[in-house]
Amino acid sequence: MADGREDVLARIRTALGDRTAGDPPPVARDYDGAGAHPMDAGPLLDLLEERLVDYRAAVHRTVAGDVAGAVAAALSRHGARRVAVPDGFPPAWLEPAVAAGAEAVGDTPPLSPAELDALDVVVTTCRVAIATTGTIVLDGGPGQGRRALSLVPDLHVVVVAAADVVRNVPDALPLLDPARPMTWISGPSATSDIELSRVEGVHGPRRLEVVLEV
What is the pLDDT of residues 25-46, one digit of tens each? Predict the structure, then answer.
């Protein structure tokens, strides 16, 4: 065993024999960190939408004053009538949908898994959206609810404010509290079997509609 060890060390010494003395050369730190390659608002939102569409999410841009109309339109497109509504979601954003016959169902006290499964859709806000990866992050804050609320219903309609969109993951991390229960969403839930047949809705909502407030 000792002879083998010495043999290995001798080989390492030989391999390193042509190295020059002194400190190793500096390592380039030009990777895509926080604040790298900032983007204007327009291209940033374009990139987020492009990535979300790649993931088969539907994206609908709207101005701040018409979020309620965009939410109602999203529910209507899918025939969604029973709506899970987390605490803190702005009631005004549901008024047109409720006026059209939708039923807003709160989560206080927490709904059971069976009750959640009986709902058509969940509507939420988000904490941050990452343009480069097309990822929407929920952390259980106001308007977002607990993780089960956004995972069980078949349709998720999420309102993303332009002010909450960042370029990359390093830009997003300082905005997030690692102690909070986070859900990172990159398109509708999907998986593939051994034959690469795509199946959606296995681990979360089968359909994702994003209302992008610009």
Answer: 777 777 777 777 778 889 999 9
Closest to 158 (Cα-Cα) out of 208, 116, 205, 203: 208
DSSP tag of 140: S
Number of other residues whose CB lies within 10 A of the CB of residue 13: 9
Q: What is the dihedral of CA 168, 172, 174, 176, to 10 degrees?
A: -160
Q: What is the DSSP string of 156-192?
A: EEEEEEGGGEESSHHHHGGGS-TTS--EEE-SS-EEE
Per DSSP, the chain holds a count of helices (H) and strands (E) of: 7, 12
- Angle, alpha carbons 104-106-111 (nearest 5°): 125
Sign of CA dihedral 173, 174, 180, 183: negative
Number of domains in the chain: 1
- Condensed to tens digits (0 to 9), the pLDDT of residues 163-182 reads 999 999 999 999 999 999 99
Q: Is 14 within the bounds of a domain?
A: no
Q: Which residues contact 10 (CB under 8 A, 6 or more apart)?
A: none
Q: Say what the pTM is.
A: 0.80
**Per-residue pLDDT reduced to its tens digit, 69-122:** 999 999 999 999 999 999 999 999 999 999 999 999 999 999 999 999 999 999
Expressed as residue numbers, the domain containing 72 is: 39-213
Q: Say if residues 122 and 174 touch (Cβ distance below 8 Å).
A: no
